[in-house]
Amino acid sequence: MSRRYFIAGNWKMNKTSSEAAALAQGVVEAVGNVSNVDIAICPTFTSLETVEKIIEGSNVKLGAQNMHFEKSGAFTGEISAAMLRELHCAYVILGHSERRQYFKECDCLINKKVKAAVASSLKPILCVGETLEEREANKTIEVVSTQTKGGLDGLTAEEALKVVIAYEPVWAIGTGKTATPAMAQEVHAEIRKVLAGMFGENVAEKIQILYGGSMKPENADELLAQKDIDGGLIGGAALKADSFAALVNSAVKLA
């Protein structure tokens, strides 16, 4: 496979700065020298600077969990791309299902963020995925396609190559449920078709598509073996260095 595997940890609203430091240190010690798999950890804003100092010099990259699309201004509580770049962030998670659900973020807003991130040399991890109701109504492909197109609207093919897609079935996040490898592969393949329609097959084949629905050491090997699954956006299993390292090592075996 020409695409590299990518394992990214989304720590969500967990870990104080001291706790984040300990976790980051554990990740670096376990997988910091891995060179054939892309690795990133995404702590809270308050821990970014602390974690950045710990992972410096390793192959673990830093990511943020969100950002505003404006460069600066009267946006209390928000963070800009420039602020993230100064802390040496390489990635930023955008459009996560929790942002869509709890903060009512729409595709048009997420699209502005994606464009702002790319313009600032941040790699967006654009999240797409359906709810349980949408899956049961057989709207999975429709929803995921709409979110992918909406999030990437107006990007050039060159810009699209700087984006990572994460498919996260909302019903499988934090519930212990997970899509079967075949179910996940089906949606990943459809996302790649959407990308091909927007930017051409050559570009679509180069874009990493991660699975974000409760990937854990017990199911990682089978999920990562699927043709269009290029890694994972990891939630719960990223909060312990040993389980996160196990996922990275699963990717290493297949790389």
UniProtKB/TrEMBL annotation:
Keyword annotations from UniProtKB, A to Z: Cytoplasm, Gluconeogenesis, Glycolysis, Isomerase
Keyword Protein transport: no
Pfam families: TIM
Enzyme class name: isomerase
EC number(s) from the headed UniProt entry: 5.3.1.1
Keyword Metal-binding: no
Compartments it resides in: Cytoplasm
Enzyme active site: H96, E168
Domain of life: Bacteria
CDD domains with a match to the protein in the record: TIM
Coiled-coil region(s): none
Pathway: Carbohydrate biosynthesis; gluconeogenesis; Carbohydrate degradation; glycolysis; D-glyceraldehyde 3-phosphate from glycerone phosphate: step 1/1
Record-level Gene Ontology MF annotations: triose-phosphate isomerase activity
Residues holding substrate: N10, W11, K12, G174, S214, G235, G236
Catalytic activity line of the entry: D-glyceraldehyde 3-phosphate = dihydroxyacetone phosphate
NCBIfam families (alphabetical): tim (TIGR00419)
Task of the protein: Involved in the gluconeogenesis. Catalyzes stereospecifically the conversion of dihydroxyacetone phosphate (DHAP) to D-glyceraldehyde-3-phosphate (G3P).
Family the entry assigns: Belongs to the triosephosphate isomerase family.
Quaternary structure and interacting proteins, as annotated: Homodimer.
Record-linked PANTHER family: TRIOSEPHOSPHATE ISOMERASE
Protein name per its UniProtKB record: Triosephosphate isomerase
Species for this entry: Intestinicryptomonas porci
